[in-house]
Specification:
The structure is a single chain. This protein is mainly α. Helix content is 69%, strand content 0%. The chain is built from 20 helices and no strands. It is globular and about 60 Å long.
């Protein structure tokens, strides 16, 4: 009987459930410790009093709470507050946003939080936090199963949760964890080869793009891989038809929502600082002389991004029909190497590069098969980003910061 129990434990440890449960328990423990020490779920939103004052009395539920002491001292807050306002009062939330059309273009996370909280203002800070906690754990589960099926240990998927961007996004109620959880679901459905996989994975990717538009790099990568595969088989122009139609269908809900937002707000929502870099790391170079946080971004984001782009480009030369290589190259190119000036501060750079971290893990087994030396590069990148995880947790994650202060 004991032997059977031991076998069951070993089987569980070898499955994707083991790492997912460990990650969920670890993050849950951190959140639980913080809240047990008197923390407030609203602390993770970083509500800026400046934007509360800007909206005035437009909404009956978005308002300053004199009994809450957690408002940031800089009065500006963070991007998560706009998700919170949207979840509290979708109709009147634009009055409390810096660029309403831009913020409203990512509706799924706040609307899910509102639905899960039954529209109750007191519950929404909790549902925002709950969704991201579950999203990171679910991403580890899906990614772990993909790695297991490709011959790697599913425990390597915990590297995704250890990526500082995941901790920072959880810390500030950002949209990225849910977006990439839906991406991971789409990749997992594809890996499993379920019936009507293009339909179901397409739905997952469409929801991911509605959560955060940069998630579109993954369905684009799948479409490019399919086109390359068709051209290799001498399919001609016909080879591009099906993946192009599929990609258009994936993007259609987001584009339709953008039209709704345009009519609603009278703006296309494009911020003035969205100008892309004209040469590699232009945005980083323009930050010179660098503050310590920019140095950290250069070492822990720019270097892995450059390595990821190099690996992806080299692998595409060998295997242009592999979508995981397209995903790695696209994410590292657009959300690291060509990242705009205003995004080269530590929190933003880590959040935007989360897709590159996910793509690197997804592509890992294929890279190792294409060339064994890729393992050394992968090991170096994984070591680099994990080495910063404790610092990111202590510096930005409220649970550990509060514990250290209490000690």
């Amino acid at each position: 009987m004991a032997e059977t129990g031991l076998d069951a434990a070993r089987g569980w440890a070898r499955s994707a459930w083991g790492p997912a449960v460990v990650v969920a328990a670890a993050l849950g423990a951190l959140l639980g410790m913080y809240l047990a020490l008197g923390g407030d779920a609203r602390d993770f939103i970083h509500i800026g009093t400046r934007f509360l004052a800007q909206g005035g009395r437009a909404s009956a539920v978005i308002r300053y709470d004199p009994s809450y002491s957690g408002y940031p001292s800089d009065m500006i807050g963070n991007d998560g507050q706009f998700c919170y306002y949207f979840a509290l009062d979708p109709q009147h939330s634009p009055a409390y946003m810096d660029i309403p059309a831009y913020r409203l273009s990512r509706p799924l996370y706040p609307l899910l939080a509102r639905a899960l909280g039954l529209g109750q203002p007191a519950l929404i800070p909790w549902t925002l936090l709950l969704l991201n906690w579950l999203a990171i754990s679910a991403t580890v589960l899906a990614l772990g199963d993909i790695l297991r099926r490709r011959g790697w240990s599913p425990w390597l998927a915990t590297l995704y949760a250890a990526y500082p961007g995941a901790l920072l996004a959880l810390h500030a109620d950002m949209t990225e964890p849910l977006a990439y959880a839906l991406v991971a679901l789409g990749l997992w459905l594809r890996e499993r080869g379920v019936a009507r996989v293009w339909l179901w994975s397409g739905l997952a990717f469409a929801l991911a793009v509605l959560t955060r538009e940069i998630a579109a790099a993954f369905p684009l990568a799948l479409a490019l891989g399919e086109v390359a595969s068709g051209l290799r088989a001498r399919g001609g122009a016909r080879a591009a038809a099906r993946p192009t139609i599929w990609l258009a269908a994936v993007m259609a809900p987001y584009l339709a929502w953008k039209v709704v937002v345009l009519v609603w707000t009278g703006s296309d929502g494009a911020p003035a600082d969205l100008t892309p870099a004209l040469y590699p790391f232009q945005g980083l170079v323009q930050q010179w002389p660098w503050a310590p946080s920019i140095w950290a971004a250069a070492v822990f984001v720019a270097i892995p991004g450059a390595v990821g782009l190099g690996l992806g480009a080299w692998a595409l030369w060998r295997r242009p029909d592999a979508p995981e290589f397209w995903a790695l190259a696209l994410n590292c190119l657009f959300f690291c190497v060509l990242l705009r000036f205003s995004s080269w501060y530590l929190i933003s750079a880590f959040r935007l590069s989360m897709g590159g971290a996910l793509a690197l893990l997804w592509a890992g087994p294929s890279l190792a098969r294409v060339a064994g030396r890729a393992r050394l590069w992968l090991a170096g990148v994984f070591t680099l980003w994990v080495s910063l995880a404790p610092l990111a947790a202590v510096t930005f994650f409220p649970a550990l910061s509060r514990l250290l202060g209490a000690g």
